[in-house]
Please model this.
Amino acid sequence: MAGKWQLRDREAERAIFSGRLFVASVVCLVLFVILLINLFNLQVMQHEYFSSRADGNRLHSQYVAPSRGLIFDSAGALLADNQPIFNLTVVREQVPDLDASLALVGELIDLSIDDLTSFKTRSERNRVPFASVPLRYILSEEEKARIAVNGHRLPGFSIESQFVRHYPFDKLNAHALGYVAEINQSELDGFDEARRESYGGSNHIGKTGIERTYEELLHGQVGYEIVEKNNRGQVMRRLDRTDPVAGADLTLFLQNELQTVANQALGENRGAVVAIEPSTGGILAMISKPGFDPNLFVTGISRAEYSQLVTDEVNTPLFDRSTNPYPPASTVKPFIGLGGLALEVIDKDFTIDDPGYFRLPGVSYRWGDYTLRTAIGGGHGLTDLKKAIYQSCDTFFYDLGNRMGIEQIHDFMSLFGFGQNFALDVPYARTGVLPSRNWKSQTRGEPWYPGDTINSSIGQGYMWATPLQLATATAILANRGEVVEPRMLKAIDGISYSPSAEKSVSPLKIAQEHLSYVEDAMTMVVHRPFSDVFRDYGTAYEAIAMKDPEMEYEIAGKSGSAQVVSIAQNILQSADIDTSDLNKDHALFVAYGPARHPSIDPQIAVAVFVENGEQGSSVAGPIAKAVIDEYLLEILSIDFGLINNSLPEELSQR
Model:
């Protein structure tokens, strides 16, 4: 009974509980001490480390792209500016599921395959962690609203403003100014470390034209800033900033009004117009038509739009006709004639009796005079150099070319920039072809034949020149042999720009009397009227001077019609055979003005090229006159009547 009713030993239980409580207290105390030690370690000993990591999650250093320099024409018209747009950008490191997020964005706004492809390319070349990469350029107000409303569903996505290039006159100056577009991978791979750093935050670079030539000036210097971002990658505030340095503003010799007139004068024709100020070499106009809208390339041209540009094999709008070569045809005759005088191969009294064709001694082949519509055998009759120029007598130049030989032709023509690029800041311009024995041997592995010289003497055969080269050579003539190399740039940030003296070319050592003789002949091309002698008038008289009998000044000019297809001996012109429009002759005209003026030096030299235009005098000549009229009478506002009235009577009546 005693074991069954035994009372509990409370003292023992209390002792056991106290022991357990002590152990638990010790364990808790130890754990608490460990916690305190860890807290001390985190808060005190590793404060700098974890503070930096915390800041790293919200503070970011990023590039600030500089504002691209503006481009003005010489009258102050803005040719290339920067306009704000709003883009959808992505910080890749802050997007948990990129594919899902892109799919959601595609439901909210129009997101094309081109957009996604370009975004992938930009992401692959992105060099800075946590940098924003453009996904879609130029969001509309509605698209911005949709993205903003769904911002909580799109971590890492944000709407950012950006200034991008804008060309207010689009097609008009497309080839001269060029355009900017996104930096591609091959360009990026070619950057050294310093240039990579300078293009941090920049997505665009000059691709063609002035934009490419003066990229270093226009781009500016990159800046930096420290920003605080939230967990969705959106910038909350800017904490520190080193401002970028904007690119330099450039002023060109280009005259936008002259560009407009040249473009209108070309009409629907394919072609080019280049105008140069002889005294400075300033390029006043450089038109290639058809053009294209350079704004399409700035934020990424679509595949469909680009395909339309590159597959147009007739108009080829991306092809710059002003800096690419064509046969110069009879526009070279004044230069070859001047060479004959300067090299004393002929003199001013030298004449030939032109039967309408030319034969080399011992050769039966006849080179016909394609400037005549009469059958071979008509000819120009007794012809000197002056008549050969204003009547464009091929036979005279066949004979002269044969007398000079190709080496003398080559060496003399090179003085005027043929076969090379004299332009200081149009490095992409082609050099054309100024043929010689060595050239043919090296490029074709063939000997030079006498017939090659005959063809070259009228600007056909192997001889090719760009409209820019023709304008350059004409400016040298207008400048009385003084070579001033063509250039586009006039001023940097309003300060006049002078090219390095090391690049200057010495004046040509040509007698002034010979230059005056050729100027007289070129002036007669335009102003020699009809006379009692059959066809003894200037080839451009009907198209220019006859249509404007009140002309206040004289123009020195020379026409040319370059063959596109070969023509048989018994056919005089491509107009006399059945050809498609693309096989018709090219029309050319070079000119300067005012010519032979006693008190005003020539102010402008022009070269006009009309693709498949056929007649240089009637098609290209009036275009040149329209450009010269605009510059002399409207832009410079020269009052020739007032000037002439102030001259001595014997000069004013000349």
Q: What stands out?
A: The two ends are 161 Å apart (CA to CA). The chain has two domains: 61-252, 256-313+320-489+503-652. Confidence is low (pLDDT under 50) at residues 567-575, 647-654.
